[in-house]
Amino acid sequence: MKLLHKIDYIPRKGEAMAVFLCEESAKNPLARELGWAEKIKETIDLKYFRGKSNETIFIPMTDGTCVLLCGLGSEKKITGETIRNASSGAVSIFREKGIKTAGIRILEAGDITQKDAALLAVEGLYLSNYVFDRYKAKLKEGNSMPLDRAVIISDSDLSDELNTISIISENTNLCRDIINETSDNCNSETMSALAKKISKTAGISCTIYGRKEIERMKMGLLLAVNRGSKRDPQLAVMKYSGNPGSGKSIAIIGKGITFDSGGMNLKPSGHIENMRSDMSGAAAVIYTLKSAAELKLKKNVYGIIPLTDNMISNDSYRPGDIFRSYSGKTVEIGNTDAEGRLILADALSFTEEKLKPDIMIDIATLTGACIIALGETVAGYLTGDEGLAGLLEAASAESGDRVWRLPIVDEYEENMKSDIADINNVSSEKNAGTIMGAIFLKNFVKSSRWAHIDIAGTSWYSKPRGYRPKNATGFGVRLLTAAIKNWNEKD
After folding, report:
1. Is 267 marked active-site?
2. Is 276 among the residues known to form the active site?
C-alpha cells in the first residue's frame, strides 16, 4: 500500500475520506472543521453520531465520493490501540465498499497530539489492510481486496515517520505470510533459505549450519527433536552490523518448529491443526532483523534461528530418553511435546558462548499455559534483569504488542530435576507451565542478561481483533524492533 502525506486532500470519484472524532468533538460536529466536506454541513444531520468507540457512519455523496466518520470514544480513554483499532474499522468498511484510495484525517484524540494520532491511524490502516489469499482459486470482490493508497492529512511533515511505519508494518505482514504458509512450503530448509535471501537484499550477513555442522557442534537437543523428521535440522545465524564501531550487540533467538505434531506425545484433534504456526518466534526474528537493517538502526543485532519440525517416525525421540545438550548438560525427556525449549536451549548456549552478545532475548510459542493465563491478547515474559524488563515494557507500550511480566520462581527449580539426568524437560507438577518453561531455559544461560517471551497466545488468533487478523498476527516484529531501537548500549 502506498502512503502519501498532504496538507489537504480532495477525494475524487470512487475515493473516500475517513474522519476520526472523539465523543467530545462529535457532540457538536457542525461546529468542527471537516476539511473539504462542507456539503456535509448543509445536507447531512449528524446529531445521531456520538463518536463512541468503534462507531462508524458511512456517507456516500452524489459526486461519487464518500465520507466515513469514525468514533474514538471519550477523550480521557483514548490510547494508541484505540486509534489503531478505529483505523481497522475504517479499513473493513473501505474494503467492503471496494474503495481503493482513502484519505485519513484525525480531528482530535484527547492527550495524543494530532501528529502522533495520524501516525497511529496509519499503522492501524496498514496492519489491518492484510489478507492471506494465495490459495484461493477465485478472489472475491469487497473485503478480500485491500486498499491501494492512503493519503494522510496533517500539517506536520510525516515523511520520515511514514517510511518507518511502512517498513515495520510491511515486515509484520510478511511475517504473517510465512506463518500462515503451509508446513509443506515452510519447513527448516525453506526458512533457512528465506533467511539467507533476505540477508542478501537487506545488507545482513547470514550463516546457515546444516546437519553435519550441528552434529559437529554437539547440539544434541536440536538433533533429538529432529530425529522423526525427513528434513535435516538447520541453524540460521543472521547478523546486522548497524554500528560496526561498537563492540556491543543484542541477540534475539526465535523458536523455529515448522510443524509440531507433539512427537510420541501426539497432540489431539483441536490442538494440532494450526501447528504450522509453531515457528512464529523464528519468523518474528527474521523480519525484525530485516526491519532493523531497512531502518538503518545504529545497533548490532544477531538473529539466531534453530529450525526443525517435530514429527513421528521409527527413529523419533521418546519419553525417558536422555540427550546431551550443547552446554554439556543432560536432559531427560519427560514429554516430547515440550520440544521448543529443547532447541532453544542449544541455541541459547551457542549464542552466549560463540557470539557473546550483551543481551539475549528469546521469543517462542512455548506453552499452552500462557494462553490459559493471559489469553490471545497479551504475551508473557520473564527475566531477572530489571533493565531488560524496562526495555521490553517500554517497547510494548510504544508498539502495541502487549506483554506482561511473570516471575521466575527459584523454588520451582526443584520441580525440573531428573532422577537420571541433570534436568527434565517438563515439571513434575502440572502447574505454572509458562514459568517452568522459562526455568528450564534459564539452566542454559550462564551469566548473560536474558529475557524469555512466550507468544503462544498472541502469535495466532482464533478470531480477528481490531487491526490483527484471524490466524497469524506477526506479533513480536514491532515489539522487538522497538526494543532494539530504544536499547541504550550504555545501560
Report:
1. yes
2. no
